[in-house]
TrEMBL record:
Listed InterPro entries: Homeodomain-like_sf, HTH-type_TetR-like_transc_reg, HTH_TetR, Tet_transcr_reg_TetR-rel_C_sf, TetR_C_16
Listed PROSITE patterns: HTH_TETR_2 (PS50977)
Domain HTH tetR-type: 27-87
Name of this chain's protein: TetR family transcriptional regulator
Residue spans binding DNA: 50-69
Length: 209
């Protein structure tokens, strides 16, 4: 008697997309892809990171990365949002009393930069933006929409968006010298000393009419 006759034959395999599981699809997979993208961009930069590499790190099919995020640019944008999440509290840091707003902003931002967990991805994003125009456009748009515009709303001064950009540019310039180029003596200066020097300048940007 054949296997078919005995009723023990294996049923034919159905074609189509595999059944959805939490391991291969759904919110868990999307979160895994996003974390993998953040790590890949942080370690390799924009140019050397690929959709296939992100998929491999997340242990999913590359088609799933395209399904959730579309292009590499969109994955980068989502990863930047995750990387910049700690910095999104800057508007809250300047909110409230006008007195000491500049120092609060400086201390908040340097607190993020001094933390190795947040500093390394931020360094990678800045380096990507310096070497790749697509990365620069994405980063610029994210900073404008999610950070500077929110900060400008909190400022009771003329030209608040311009003031917010001046304050952010001041801090980014110092961060470049201290953490990317590592120029002395600013690279080894005490954070409190930098804050003490920078705070009054930021105060003028943020509050002076």
């Amino acid at each position: 008697m054949t296997a078919a006759a005995s009723g023990s034959a294996t049923p034919p395999r159905k074609r189509g997309r595999p059944a959805r599981t939490s391991a291969s699809d759904g919110p868990a997979a999307r979160d895994r892809i996003l974390i993998a993208a953040r790590n890949e961009f942080a370690e390799r930069g924009y140019d050397k990171t690929s959709i296939r590499g992100i998929a491999k790190a997340a242990e999913v099919d590359p088609a799933l990365v395209h399904h959730y995020f579309g292009t590499k640019e969109r994955v980068f944008e989502a990863a930047i949002e995750l990387i910049l999440a700690p910095a999104m509290g800057v508007p809250d840091a300047v909110h409230g009393s006008r007195e000491g707003a500049g120092e609060r902003m400086a201390r908040y931002m340097f607190g993020i930069w001094e933390n190795p967990v947040s500093r390394l991805p931020l360094l990678a994003v800045m380096r990507s933006a310096l070497t790749n125009e697509t990365a620069a456009v994405v980063l610029r748009g994210m900073i404008e929409r999610r950070l500077l515009l929110r900060m400008a709303v909190e400022l009771d001064v003329p030209n608040p968006e311009f003031r917010a950009q001046l304050a952010a540019g001041h801090l980014i310039g110092i961060a470049m010298l201290r953490y990317v180029i590592r120029m002395e003596p600013i690279a080894s200066a005490e954070t409190d000393d930098i804050v003490a020097m920078v705070g009054p300048t930021l105060q003028r940007y943020l509050t002076e009419r």
